């Protein structure tokens, strides 16, 4: 019976070690995501005026799937040096008009 207890104990220790390692990995991944998000927000704060950031926040409510793409494109522009000045609300609106597809009207013709 002692042999079974030793094996069971070894399995428990191994499982606990695997669980602890998985938790550490998850915590490291969460920390990396938070750092990346903070870095993105810092860059956006540097290249957008408060009004433009507010507009981007409203867009996030309407088009959550597009916001990350728009932010990534703005950050890429800034990192490549193509943003010479702070992007104001009007400039952001012009950029968004090019990025967000226009809605198509659906016409139903009856014959």
**Which series of helices and strands comes N to C?**
HHHH
Helix fraction, binned, reads: over 70%
Largest sheet: none
Distance between the termini: 85 Å
**Rg, please?**
25 Å
Describe the structure.
The chain has 111 residues and is mainly alpha-helical. It has one domain (2-99): Helicase, Ruva Protein, domain 3, CATH 1.10.8.140. It contains 4 helices and no strands. It has helices at residues 2-47, 50-62, 64-79, 89-99. Helix 1 crosses helix 3. The longest helix is centred in the first third of the chain and has 46 residues, at 2-47. The mean pLDDT is 88.
Name the descriptors.
single chain; 111 residues; mainly alpha; Helicase, Ruva Protein, domain 3; 4 helices; elongated
Brief synopsis:
The chain is 77% helix and 0% strand. It has helices at residues 2-47, 50-62, 64-79, 89-99.
Give the topology.
Blueprint: H1 2-47, H2 50-62, H3 64-79, H4 89-99
